[in-house]
Task: structure prediction
Amino acid sequence: MLKIRLKRLGAKKAPIYRIIVINSTTKREGRPIQELGFYNPKSKEMKLDKATAESWISKGAQPTDTVAYLLKNCNEDGTLNYKKSDVVKLSKKAKAKQEAEAAAKAEAEKAAAEVQEAPAEEAAAE
Result:
């Protein structure tokens, strides 16, 4: 069975991957059948021959999960269509602090609203 997968290159803690077609029983750094492109996860740079990759898939090659994601988010010219997430991930501690601040703000607004209503009630009673 043929797989389309990543072949790791680059220095320690600075990976660069080649996207290759290889037999599934061959080791990760084994000799590939064909090289389709490269992917640098640090700089989000990618160059891929998308047409050739799709032709291999039509012939029965199975892409790995990562390669399937890269193919799905690939432009027609073979570059990565990377969308940076706007959502900021917070730790549990930061979330708790944010919720405590929101609760304190809500209490302050409620107290301010009660203070404004109290003089209005006194004026209406007179």
User: Anything to note?
Assistant: The chain has a mean pLDDT of 87. The CA atoms of residues 7 and 88 lie 31 Å apart.
